[in-house]
Protein backbone atom coordinates (compact mmCIF):
# COMPACT_ATOMS: atom_id res chain seq x y z
CA UNK A 1 0.00 0.00 0.00
CA UNK A 2 1.33 3.45 -0.84
CA UNK A 3 2.49 5.27 2.23
CA UNK A 4 0.05 8.18 1.87
CA UNK A 5 -2.94 5.84 1.63
CA UNK A 6 -1.63 3.75 4.50
CA UNK A 7 -1.28 6.81 6.67
CA UNK A 8 -4.82 8.03 5.86
CA UNK A 9 -6.30 4.57 6.29
CA UNK A 10 -4.71 3.97 9.65
CA UNK A 11 -5.57 7.41 10.95
CA UNK A 12 -9.21 7.12 9.87
CA UNK A 13 -9.64 3.61 11.20
CA UNK A 14 -8.47 4.78 14.63
CA UNK A 15 -7.03 1.32 15.05
CA UNK A 16 -3.43 2.16 15.83
CA UNK A 17 -0.84 0.45 17.91
CA UNK A 18 2.03 2.52 19.29
CA UNK A 19 4.53 1.47 16.60
CA UNK A 20 2.08 2.46 13.84
CA UNK A 21 1.54 5.87 15.43
CA UNK A 22 5.26 6.36 15.67
CA UNK A 23 5.71 5.35 12.04
CA UNK A 24 3.02 7.73 10.86
CA UNK A 25 4.51 10.61 12.81
CA UNK A 26 7.95 9.93 11.41
CA UNK A 27 6.54 9.70 7.88
CA UNK A 28 5.20 13.23 8.22
CA UNK A 29 8.82 14.26 8.53
CA UNK A 30 10.77 11.62 6.62
CA UNK A 31 9.14 11.17 3.24
CA UNK A 32 11.26 8.19 2.22
CA UNK A 33 10.89 6.28 5.46
CA UNK A 34 9.90 2.66 4.79
CA UNK A 35 9.38 0.14 7.59
CA UNK A 36 9.27 -3.10 5.63
CA UNK A 37 11.89 -5.10 3.82
CA UNK A 38 11.87 -5.24 0.01
CA UNK A 39 11.78 -8.56 -1.82
CA UNK A 40 10.63 -9.31 -5.36
CA UNK A 41 9.42 -5.75 -5.85
CA UNK A 42 7.18 -5.85 -2.77
CA UNK A 43 7.34 -4.47 0.75
CA UNK A 44 7.33 -7.44 3.08
CA UNK A 45 7.51 -8.45 6.74
CA UNK A 46 9.76 -11.10 8.24
CA UNK A 47 8.24 -14.59 8.05
CA UNK A 48 8.47 -14.62 11.86
CA UNK A 49 6.68 -11.25 12.04
CA UNK A 50 9.47 -10.04 14.34
CA UNK A 51 10.79 -6.48 14.14
CA UNK A 52 13.67 -4.51 15.59
CA UNK A 53 13.97 -0.83 16.38
CA UNK A 54 16.22 1.59 14.52
CA UNK A 55 17.48 4.33 16.83
CA UNK A 56 18.61 7.86 16.24
CA UNK A 57 22.08 7.88 17.82
CA UNK A 58 21.78 11.55 18.73
CA UNK A 59 19.03 10.98 21.30
CA UNK A 60 18.32 7.23 21.26
CA UNK A 61 14.77 7.85 20.04
CA UNK A 62 13.21 5.15 17.86
CA UNK A 63 13.05 6.23 14.21
CA UNK A 64 11.20 3.14 12.99
CA UNK A 65 10.81 -0.58 13.46
CA UNK A 66 11.75 -2.87 10.58
CA UNK A 67 11.46 -6.63 9.98
CA UNK A 68 13.98 -8.76 11.82
CA UNK A 69 14.54 -11.28 9.07
CA UNK A 70 16.30 -14.58 9.49
CA UNK A 71 18.07 -17.13 7.32
CA UNK A 72 14.82 -18.38 5.78
CA UNK A 73 13.89 -14.87 4.67
CA UNK A 74 17.38 -14.48 3.23
CA UNK A 75 17.07 -17.77 1.33
CA UNK A 76 13.78 -16.65 -0.13
CA UNK A 77 15.25 -13.34 -1.24
CA UNK A 78 18.21 -15.12 -2.85
CA UNK A 79 15.83 -17.40 -4.77
CA UNK A 80 13.97 -14.31 -5.95
CA UNK A 81 17.21 -12.69 -7.08
CA UNK A 82 18.16 -15.89 -8.88
CA UNK A 83 14.86 -15.97 -10.75
CA UNK A 84 15.19 -12.31 -11.69
CA UNK A 85 18.70 -12.95 -12.97
CA UNK A 86 17.33 -15.25 -15.68
CA UNK A 87 15.80 -12.27 -17.46
CA UNK A 88 17.97 -9.39 -16.20
CA UNK A 89 21.13 -11.00 -17.60
CA UNK A 90 19.62 -10.85 -21.09
CA UNK A 91 18.63 -7.19 -21.01
CA UNK A 92 20.76 -5.01 -23.23
CA UNK A 93 23.45 -2.85 -21.73
CA UNK A 94 21.52 0.11 -23.10
CA UNK A 95 18.39 -0.90 -21.20
CA UNK A 96 20.30 -1.38 -17.95
CA UNK A 97 21.96 1.96 -18.49
CA UNK A 98 18.58 3.65 -18.91
CA UNK A 99 17.18 2.12 -15.75
CA UNK A 100 20.24 3.12 -13.72
CA UNK A 101 19.99 6.64 -15.12
CA UNK A 102 16.35 6.87 -14.04
CA UNK A 103 17.33 5.70 -10.54
CA UNK A 104 20.09 8.31 -10.48
CA UNK A 105 17.65 11.07 -11.57
CA UNK A 106 15.19 10.14 -8.82
CA UNK A 107 17.90 10.02 -6.15
CA UNK A 108 19.13 13.41 -7.24
CA UNK A 109 15.61 14.83 -7.11
CA UNK A 110 15.18 13.32 -3.64
CA UNK A 111 18.53 14.43 -2.22
CA UNK A 112 16.95 16.18 0.76
CA UNK A 113 14.60 13.30 1.51
CA UNK A 114 17.39 10.74 1.37
CA UNK A 115 19.66 12.93 3.49
CA UNK A 116 16.99 13.27 6.19
CA UNK A 117 16.76 9.49 6.50
CA UNK A 118 20.55 9.13 6.60
CA UNK A 119 20.84 11.73 9.35
CA UNK A 120 17.96 10.26 11.34
CA UNK A 121 19.59 6.85 11.65
CA UNK A 122 23.33 7.56 11.39
CA UNK A 123 23.44 10.88 13.23
CA UNK A 124 25.69 12.62 10.70
CA UNK A 125 25.08 16.33 10.05
CA UNK A 126 22.54 17.01 7.31
CA UNK A 127 25.13 18.76 5.13
CA UNK A 128 27.30 15.65 5.27
CA UNK A 129 24.31 13.43 4.57
CA UNK A 130 23.60 15.50 1.45
CA UNK A 131 27.26 15.07 0.51
CA UNK A 132 26.86 11.33 0.92
CA UNK A 133 23.82 11.34 -1.37
CA UNK A 134 25.77 13.26 -4.03
CA UNK A 135 28.72 10.88 -3.65
CA UNK A 136 26.59 7.73 -3.59
CA UNK A 137 24.50 8.90 -6.46
CA UNK A 138 27.57 9.62 -8.58
CA UNK A 139 28.05 5.82 -8.73
CA UNK A 140 24.59 5.33 -10.21
CA UNK A 141 25.38 7.94 -12.83
CA UNK A 142 28.84 6.51 -13.48
CA UNK A 143 27.61 2.93 -13.82
CA UNK A 144 24.69 4.03 -16.00
CA UNK A 145 27.41 5.18 -18.40
CA UNK A 146 29.81 2.29 -17.75
CA UNK A 147 27.14 -0.35 -18.43
CA UNK A 148 27.71 0.22 -22.13
CA UNK A 149 31.48 -0.13 -21.95
CA UNK A 150 31.92 -3.57 -20.39
CA UNK A 151 33.59 -4.89 -23.50
CA UNK A 152 35.10 -8.20 -24.46
CA UNK A 153 38.14 -8.85 -26.66
CA UNK A 154 38.94 -10.52 -29.95
CA UNK A 155 42.47 -11.86 -29.78
CA UNK A 156 44.55 -12.69 -32.88
CA UNK A 157 44.48 -16.45 -33.08
CA UNK A 158 47.56 -18.66 -33.56
CA UNK A 159 45.47 -20.79 -35.98
CA UNK A 160 44.48 -19.63 -39.48
CA UNK A 161 40.93 -21.01 -39.35
CA UNK A 162 39.91 -20.04 -35.82
CA UNK A 163 38.98 -16.96 -33.90
CA UNK A 164 39.33 -16.32 -30.17
CA UNK A 165 36.57 -14.38 -28.43
CA UNK A 166 36.64 -13.23 -24.81
CA UNK A 167 33.29 -12.02 -23.55
CA UNK A 168 32.30 -10.63 -20.16
CA UNK A 169 29.29 -12.35 -18.64
CA UNK A 170 27.45 -11.35 -15.45
CA UNK A 171 28.27 -13.51 -12.44
CA UNK A 172 24.70 -14.01 -11.20
CA UNK A 173 23.33 -13.30 -7.73
CA UNK A 174 25.46 -11.07 -5.52
CA UNK A 175 25.09 -10.93 -1.73
CA UNK A 176 25.67 -7.33 -0.68
CA UNK A 177 26.52 -6.70 2.99
CA UNK A 178 27.09 -3.09 3.98
CA UNK A 179 28.14 -1.04 7.05
CA UNK A 180 26.47 1.85 8.82
CA UNK A 181 28.99 4.63 8.18
CA UNK A 182 27.88 5.47 4.61
CA UNK A 183 24.56 3.65 4.57
CA UNK A 184 23.46 4.97 1.16
CA UNK A 185 26.75 5.30 -0.75
CA UNK A 186 28.09 1.86 0.20
CA UNK A 187 24.98 0.42 -1.44
CA UNK A 188 24.95 2.43 -4.67
CA UNK A 189 28.70 1.85 -5.14
CA UNK A 190 28.04 -1.89 -5.26
CA UNK A 191 24.54 -2.12 -6.69
CA UNK A 192 25.18 0.36 -9.52
CA UNK A 193 28.18 -1.73 -10.59
CA UNK A 194 26.56 -5.14 -10.35
CA UNK A 195 23.39 -4.01 -12.11
CA UNK A 196 25.45 -2.52 -14.92
CA UNK A 197 27.20 -5.88 -15.31
CA UNK A 198 23.83 -7.69 -15.48
CA UNK A 199 23.77 -9.20 -11.98
CA UNK A 200 20.99 -9.18 -9.38
CA UNK A 201 21.39 -8.88 -5.62
CA UNK A 202 20.18 -9.20 -2.07
CA UNK A 203 21.32 -6.40 0.25
CA UNK A 204 21.79 -6.84 3.99
CA UNK A 205 22.34 -3.41 5.56
CA UNK A 206 23.60 -2.89 9.10
CA UNK A 207 21.17 -3.11 12.01
CA UNK A 208 22.01 0.53 12.76
CA UNK A 209 21.10 1.87 9.32
CA UNK A 210 18.60 -0.19 7.31
CA UNK A 211 16.38 2.82 6.54
CA UNK A 212 18.77 4.43 4.04
CA UNK A 213 18.85 1.14 2.12
CA UNK A 214 15.06 0.97 2.10
CA UNK A 215 14.81 4.60 0.98
CA UNK A 216 17.25 3.88 -1.85
CA UNK A 217 15.29 0.88 -3.09
CA UNK A 218 12.01 2.77 -2.87
CA UNK A 219 13.51 5.07 -5.50
CA UNK A 220 14.84 2.08 -7.46
CA UNK A 221 11.28 0.76 -7.47
CA UNK A 222 9.96 4.08 -8.74
CA UNK A 223 12.70 4.10 -11.37
CA UNK A 224 11.39 0.81 -12.79
CA UNK A 225 14.13 -1.55 -11.62
CA UNK A 226 12.45 -4.90 -12.42
CA UNK A 227 11.19 -6.93 -9.49
CA UNK A 228 13.72 -9.24 -7.92
CA UNK A 229 16.77 -7.45 -9.34
CA UNK A 230 17.39 -5.58 -6.06
CA UNK A 231 16.15 -6.96 -2.74
CA UNK A 232 16.73 -5.80 0.83
CA UNK A 233 16.70 -8.11 3.83
CA UNK A 234 16.71 -6.20 7.12
CA UNK A 235 18.06 -8.03 10.12
CA UNK A 236 19.08 -7.38 13.70
CA UNK A 237 22.71 -7.73 14.80
CA UNK A 238 21.72 -10.92 16.59
CA UNK A 239 20.69 -12.55 13.31
CA UNK A 240 23.55 -11.14 11.18
CA UNK A 241 25.82 -14.22 11.50
CA UNK A 242 23.14 -16.74 10.45
CA UNK A 243 21.83 -14.52 7.67
CA UNK A 244 25.42 -13.81 6.61
CA UNK A 245 26.17 -17.53 6.47
CA UNK A 246 23.27 -18.14 4.10
CA UNK A 247 24.28 -15.15 2.02
CA UNK A 248 27.77 -16.61 1.62
CA UNK A 249 26.94 -20.27 1.23
CA UNK A 250 23.60 -20.45 -0.58
CA UNK A 251 23.80 -22.25 -3.91
CA UNK A 252 22.30 -19.29 -5.81
CA UNK A 253 25.01 -16.88 -4.69
CA UNK A 254 27.94 -16.31 -7.03
CA UNK A 255 29.62 -13.39 -5.31
CA UNK A 256 29.80 -11.81 -1.85
CA UNK A 257 30.33 -8.09 -1.96
CA UNK A 258 31.10 -6.89 1.54
CA UNK A 259 32.10 -3.57 3.05
CA UNK A 260 32.89 -3.58 6.73
CA UNK A 261 35.47 -4.53 9.30
CA UNK A 262 38.42 -6.79 8.55
CA UNK A 263 37.29 -9.13 11.34
CA UNK A 264 33.92 -9.82 9.75
CA UNK A 265 35.47 -9.77 6.25
CA UNK A 266 37.68 -12.69 7.25
CA UNK A 267 34.67 -14.70 8.48
CA UNK A 268 32.81 -14.12 5.23
CA UNK A 269 35.88 -14.88 3.11
CA UNK A 270 36.13 -18.23 4.90
CA UNK A 271 32.45 -19.02 4.28
CA UNK A 272 32.72 -17.99 0.63
CA UNK A 273 35.72 -20.26 0.15
CA UNK A 274 33.59 -23.36 0.75
CA UNK A 275 31.67 -22.75 -2.47
CA UNK A 276 34.55 -21.06 -4.37
CA UNK A 277 32.43 -17.90 -4.56
CA UNK A 278 33.85 -14.67 -5.86
CA UNK A 279 34.49 -12.05 -3.16
CA UNK A 280 34.73 -8.29 -3.26
CA UNK A 281 35.94 -7.14 0.15
CA UNK A 282 36.25 -3.49 1.18
CA UNK A 283 37.62 -3.67 4.71
CA UNK A 284 39.12 -1.53 7.42
CA UNK A 285 41.99 0.93 7.07
CA UNK A 286 44.66 2.58 9.19
CA UNK A 287 45.60 5.53 7.02
CA UNK A 288 48.84 7.44 7.55
CA UNK A 289 48.78 11.19 6.89
CA UNK A 290 52.38 12.19 6.28
CA UNK A 291 53.61 15.79 6.25
CA UNK A 292 57.13 16.66 5.04
CA UNK A 293 58.95 19.98 5.56
CA UNK A 294 58.38 21.19 1.98
CA UNK A 295 54.59 20.98 2.35
CA UNK A 296 52.26 23.96 2.51
CA UNK A 297 51.34 23.55 6.19
CA UNK A 298 48.14 25.61 6.10
CA UNK A 299 46.89 23.51 3.20
CA UNK A 300 47.94 20.30 4.96
CA UNK A 301 45.96 21.35 8.05
CA UNK A 302 42.87 22.11 5.94
CA UNK A 303 43.10 18.70 4.34
CA UNK A 304 43.76 17.04 7.70
CA UNK A 305 40.42 18.38 8.92
CA UNK A 306 38.68 16.68 6.00
CA UNK A 307 40.67 13.47 6.18
CA UNK A 308 40.09 13.13 9.93
CA UNK A 309 36.78 14.67 10.90
CA UNK A 310 34.55 13.83 7.92
CA UNK A 311 31.72 11.70 9.28
CA UNK A 312 33.14 12.36 12.74
CA UNK A 313 36.12 10.15 11.97
CA UNK A 314 33.95 7.16 11.07
CA UNK A 315 35.37 6.58 7.60
CA UNK A 316 37.49 3.68 6.39
CA UNK A 317 39.86 6.06 4.60
CA UNK A 318 39.91 8.49 7.54
CA UNK A 319 43.42 9.59 8.55
CA UNK A 320 44.40 7.52 11.54
CA UNK A 321 48.05 8.35 12.17
CA UNK A 322 49.50 11.81 11.55
CA UNK A 323 53.22 11.33 10.88
CA UNK A 324 54.68 14.83 10.92
CA UNK A 325 58.29 15.74 10.21
CA UNK A 326 60.03 17.17 13.29
CA UNK A 327 60.89 20.42 11.47
CA UNK A 328 57.22 21.30 10.94
CA UNK A 329 55.69 19.34 13.83
CA UNK A 330 55.05 22.23 16.23
CA UNK A 331 53.67 24.48 13.50
CA UNK A 332 51.35 21.75 12.17
CA UNK A 333 50.09 20.75 15.63
CA UNK A 334 49.47 24.34 16.72
CA UNK A 335 47.44 25.11 13.60
CA UNK A 336 45.61 21.76 13.68
CA UNK A 337 44.55 22.34 17.30
CA UNK A 338 43.30 25.83 16.52
CA UNK A 339 41.36 24.57 13.50
CA UNK A 340 39.78 21.68 15.45
CA UNK A 341 38.66 23.98 18.25
CA UNK A 342 37.19 26.46 15.79
CA UNK A 343 35.60 24.15 13.21
CA UNK A 344 34.41 21.07 15.07
CA UNK A 345 30.94 21.81 16.37
CA UNK A 346 29.44 18.84 18.14
CA UNK A 347 25.70 18.22 18.25
CA UNK A 348 22.73 16.46 16.66
CA UNK A 349 22.99 16.25 12.88
CA UNK A 350 19.76 18.14 12.35
CA UNK A 351 20.99 21.27 14.17
CA UNK A 352 22.20 24.13 12.01
CA UNK A 353 25.93 24.70 12.22
CA UNK A 354 26.80 21.27 13.62
CA UNK A 355 29.78 19.62 11.88
CA UNK A 356 30.30 16.54 14.05
CA UNK A 357 27.47 14.24 15.13
CA UNK A 358 27.36 11.41 17.63
CA UNK A 359 29.19 8.10 17.32
CA UNK A 360 26.92 5.45 15.89
CA UNK A 361 26.37 3.27 18.94
CA UNK A 362 27.52 2.56 22.50
CA UNK A 363 30.00 -0.08 21.41
CA UNK A 364 31.72 2.36 19.06
CA UNK A 365 31.72 5.07 21.74
CA UNK A 366 33.32 2.68 24.21
CA UNK A 367 35.96 1.65 21.68
CA UNK A 368 36.97 5.26 20.89
CA UNK A 369 37.18 6.36 24.52
CA UNK A 370 39.03 3.14 25.40
CA UNK A 371 41.69 3.81 22.76
CA UNK A 372 42.21 7.36 24.04
CA UNK A 373 42.38 6.21 27.67
CA UNK A 374 44.93 3.52 26.75
CA UNK A 375 47.08 6.08 24.90
CA UNK A 376 46.92 8.57 27.79
CA UNK A 377 47.80 5.86 30.30
CA UNK A 378 50.88 5.07 28.18
CA UNK A 379 52.03 8.68 28.02
CA UNK A 380 50.07 10.44 25.25
CA UNK A 381 49.15 14.07 25.90
CA UNK A 382 45.69 15.45 25.18
CA UNK A 383 45.82 18.84 23.44
CA UNK A 384 42.09 19.02 22.71
CA UNK A 385 39.03 17.02 23.73
CA UNK A 386 39.77 13.59 25.15
CA UNK A 387 36.41 12.94 26.78
CA UNK A 388 32.68 12.52 26.20
CA UNK A 389 30.55 15.65 25.79
CA UNK A 390 28.13 14.32 28.39
CA UNK A 391 25.86 17.36 28.20
CA UNK A 392 24.91 16.28 24.66
CA UNK A 393 24.34 12.58 25.30
CA UNK A 394 26.19 9.32 25.78
CA UNK A 395 27.55 8.99 22.24
CA UNK A 396 29.05 12.44 21.70
CA UNK A 397 32.83 12.34 21.96
CA UNK A 398 34.81 15.57 21.80
CA UNK A 399 36.99 16.16 18.74
CA UNK A 400 40.35 15.13 20.10
CA UNK A 401 44.00 15.85 19.37
CA UNK A 402 46.73 13.71 20.94
CA UNK A 403 50.51 14.15 20.82
CA UNK A 404 53.37 12.09 22.24
CA UNK A 405 51.78 9.03 20.68
CA UNK A 406 54.03 6.04 20.04
CA UNK A 407 53.87 2.74 18.22
CA UNK A 408 53.20 0.71 21.38
CA UNK A 409 49.85 2.34 21.92
CA UNK A 410 46.75 0.55 20.70
CA UNK A 411 45.59 3.74 19.00
CA UNK A 412 48.56 3.56 16.64
CA UNK A 413 47.84 -0.04 15.65
CA UNK A 414 44.06 0.05 15.37
CA UNK A 415 41.59 1.86 13.20
CA UNK A 416 40.13 4.46 15.61
CA UNK A 417 36.93 5.08 13.65
CA UNK A 418 36.20 8.18 15.68
CA UNK A 419 37.12 11.87 16.05
CA UNK A 420 40.62 11.38 17.42
CA UNK A 421 43.75 12.68 15.67
CA UNK A 422 47.07 11.28 16.85
CA UNK A 423 50.28 13.12 15.95
CA UNK A 424 53.63 11.38 15.83
CA UNK A 425 56.99 13.02 15.16
CA UNK A 426 59.22 11.54 12.44
CA UNK A 427 62.68 12.48 11.20
CA UNK A 428 63.01 11.14 7.67
CA UNK A 429 61.29 9.69 4.63
CA UNK A 430 62.57 6.22 5.55
CA UNK A 431 61.20 6.45 9.07
CA UNK A 432 57.85 7.72 7.82
CA UNK A 433 57.60 4.84 5.34
CA UNK A 434 58.52 2.27 7.95
CA UNK A 435 55.91 3.55 10.40
CA UNK A 436 53.26 3.96 7.71
CA UNK A 437 53.71 0.41 6.43
CA UNK A 438 53.86 -1.15 9.90
CA UNK A 439 50.22 -2.20 9.77
CA UNK A 440 48.26 -5.08 8.30
CA UNK A 441 45.88 -2.61 6.70
CA UNK A 442 46.56 -1.02 3.33
CA UNK A 443 43.63 1.12 2.25
CA UNK A 444 44.46 4.83 1.88
CA UNK A 445 47.51 6.99 2.58
CA UNK A 446 48.02 10.77 2.39
CA UNK A 447 51.30 12.58 1.70
CA UNK A 448 52.04 16.29 1.82
CA UNK A 449 55.21 17.42 0.03
CA UNK A 450 56.25 19.73 -2.76
CA UNK A 451 59.21 17.53 -3.64
CA UNK A 452 58.11 15.68 -6.78
CA UNK A 453 60.68 12.92 -6.44
CA UNK A 454 59.66 12.35 -2.84
CA UNK A 455 55.99 12.18 -3.86
CA UNK A 456 56.74 9.48 -6.44
CA UNK A 457 59.03 7.52 -4.11
CA UNK A 458 56.48 7.56 -1.34
CA UNK A 459 53.60 6.62 -3.63
CA UNK A 460 55.61 3.70 -5.00
CA UNK A 461 56.71 2.37 -1.62
CA UNK A 462 53.59 2.84 0.47
CA UNK A 463 51.78 -0.48 0.82
CA UNK A 464 48.34 1.02 0.30
CA UNK A 465 45.73 0.67 -2.44
CA UNK A 466 45.18 4.44 -2.70
CA UNK A 467 47.63 7.30 -2.21
CA UNK A 468 46.63 10.97 -2.22
CA UNK A 469 49.41 13.51 -2.74
CA UNK A 470 48.62 16.92 -1.23
CA UNK A 471 44.94 16.10 -0.76
CA UNK A 472 42.76 14.82 2.06
CA UNK A 473 39.84 13.51 0.00
CA UNK A 474 40.23 10.95 -2.75
CA UNK A 475 36.90 9.21 -3.20
CA UNK A 476 34.94 9.53 -6.42
CA UNK A 477 33.13 7.27 -8.86
CA UNK A 478 35.83 7.52 -11.52
CA UNK A 479 38.93 6.09 -9.76
CA UNK A 480 39.30 2.50 -8.53
CA UNK A 481 38.66 2.38 -4.77
CA UNK A 482 40.08 -0.43 -2.69
CA UNK A 483 42.84 -1.75 -0.50
CA UNK A 484 45.72 -4.17 -0.32
CA UNK A 485 46.88 -6.46 2.49
CA UNK A 486 44.06 -6.92 5.04
CA UNK A 487 42.09 -3.96 3.68
CA UNK A 488 40.47 -6.07 1.04
CA UNK A 489 40.20 -7.64 -2.36
CA UNK A 490 38.80 -6.03 -5.48
CA UNK A 491 37.97 -2.50 -6.52
CA UNK A 492 34.86 -0.34 -6.51
CA UNK A 493 34.13 2.58 -8.82
CA UNK A 494 35.81 3.03 -12.20
CA UNK A 495 35.16 0.49 -14.93
CA UNK A 496 37.01 -2.08 -12.78
CA UNK A 497 34.12 -1.83 -10.30
CA UNK A 498 31.67 -3.25 -12.85
CA UNK A 499 34.10 -5.76 -14.30
CA UNK A 500 34.39 -7.28 -10.78
CA UNK A 501 30.88 -8.65 -11.30
CA UNK A 502 31.65 -10.45 -14.56
CA UNK A 503 33.30 -13.69 -15.59
CA UNK A 504 35.51 -13.82 -18.60
CA UNK A 505 34.35 -16.45 -21.08
CA UNK A 506 36.60 -17.78 -23.81
CA UNK A 507 34.82 -18.93 -26.94
CA UNK A 508 36.80 -20.58 -29.73
CA UNK A 509 35.23 -20.17 -33.17
CA UNK A 510 36.74 -22.90 -35.30
CA UNK A 511 36.35 -24.17 -38.84
CA UNK A 512 36.12 -20.69 -40.28
CA UNK A 513 37.81 -21.79 -43.53
CA UNK A 514 35.01 -24.18 -44.46
P1 LIG B 1 31.09 -4.68 10.56
O1 LIG B 1 30.83 -4.85 11.98
O2 LIG B 1 32.07 -5.56 9.89
O3 LIG B 1 29.68 -4.79 9.82
C1 LIG B 1 29.53 -4.66 8.43
C2 LIG B 1 28.29 -5.40 8.00
O4 LIG B 1 28.44 -6.79 8.26
C3 LIG B 1 27.04 -4.97 8.76
O5 LIG B 1 25.93 -5.08 7.91
C4 LIG B 1 26.96 -6.02 9.86
O6 LIG B 1 25.68 -6.14 10.39
C5 LIG B 1 27.38 -7.24 9.09
N1 LIG B 1 27.86 -8.34 9.89
C6 LIG B 1 28.45 -8.32 11.10
N2 LIG B 1 28.80 -9.57 11.47
C7 LIG B 1 28.41 -10.39 10.47
C8 LIG B 1 28.49 -11.80 10.23
N3 LIG B 1 29.05 -12.62 11.11
N4 LIG B 1 28.00 -12.29 9.08
C9 LIG B 1 27.45 -11.46 8.17
N5 LIG B 1 27.33 -10.13 8.33
C10 LIG B 1 27.82 -9.61 9.46
O7 LIG B 1 31.57 -3.20 10.22
P2 LIG B 1 30.90 -1.84 10.68
O8 LIG B 1 31.22 -1.63 12.10
O9 LIG B 1 29.47 -1.79 10.25
O10 LIG B 1 31.66 -0.79 9.75
C11 LIG B 1 32.87 -0.26 10.09
C12 LIG B 1 34.00 -0.96 9.35
O11 LIG B 1 33.75 -0.92 7.95
C13 LIG B 1 35.31 -0.27 9.55
O12 LIG B 1 36.32 -1.22 9.78
C14 LIG B 1 35.54 0.44 8.22
O13 LIG B 1 36.89 0.68 7.93
C15 LIG B 1 34.92 -0.51 7.27
N6 LIG B 1 34.57 0.18 6.03
C16 LIG B 1 35.35 -0.06 4.93
C17 LIG B 1 35.08 0.61 3.75
C18 LIG B 1 35.91 0.35 2.52
O14 LIG B 1 35.49 0.76 1.44
N7 LIG B 1 37.05 -0.30 2.61
C19 LIG B 1 34.02 1.53 3.69
C20 LIG B 1 33.26 1.75 4.83
C21 LIG B 1 33.56 1.07 6.00
P3 LIG B 1 25.38 -5.40 11.80
O15 LIG B 1 25.90 -4.01 11.67
O16 LIG B 1 23.93 -5.46 11.94
O17 LIG B 1 26.12 -6.16 12.84
From TrEMBL:
It is an enzyme of class 1 (oxidoreductase). Keywords: Oxidoreductase. InterPro entries: Ald_DH/histidinol_DH, Ald_DH_C, Ald_DH_CS_CYS, Ald_DH_CS_GLU, Ald_DH_N, Aldehyde_DH_dom, Aldehyde_DH_Superfamily. It comes from the Eukaryota. One of its GO terms (biological process) is gamma-aminobutyric acid catabolic process. It holds the Pfam family Aldedh. Pathway: Amino-acid degradation; 4-aminobutanoate degradation. Belongs to the aldehyde dehydrogenase family. This is Succinate-semialdehyde dehydrogenase, mitochondrial.
Amino acid sequence: MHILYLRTYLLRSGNLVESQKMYINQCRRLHLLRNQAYVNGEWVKAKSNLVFAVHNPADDSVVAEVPDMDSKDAQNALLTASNAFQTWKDTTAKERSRILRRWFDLCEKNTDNLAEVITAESGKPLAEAKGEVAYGNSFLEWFADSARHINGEIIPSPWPNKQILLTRNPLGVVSVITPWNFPFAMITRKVGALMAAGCTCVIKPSEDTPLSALAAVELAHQAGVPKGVVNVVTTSRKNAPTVGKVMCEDEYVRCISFTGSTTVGKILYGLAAKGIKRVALELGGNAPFIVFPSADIDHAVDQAMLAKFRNNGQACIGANRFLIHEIVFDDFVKKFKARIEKKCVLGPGTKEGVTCGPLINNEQAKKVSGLVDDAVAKGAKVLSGGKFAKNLGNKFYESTLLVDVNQDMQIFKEEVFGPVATCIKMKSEEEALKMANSTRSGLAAYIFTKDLGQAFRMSKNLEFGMVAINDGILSAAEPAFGGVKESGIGREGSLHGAVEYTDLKYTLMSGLDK
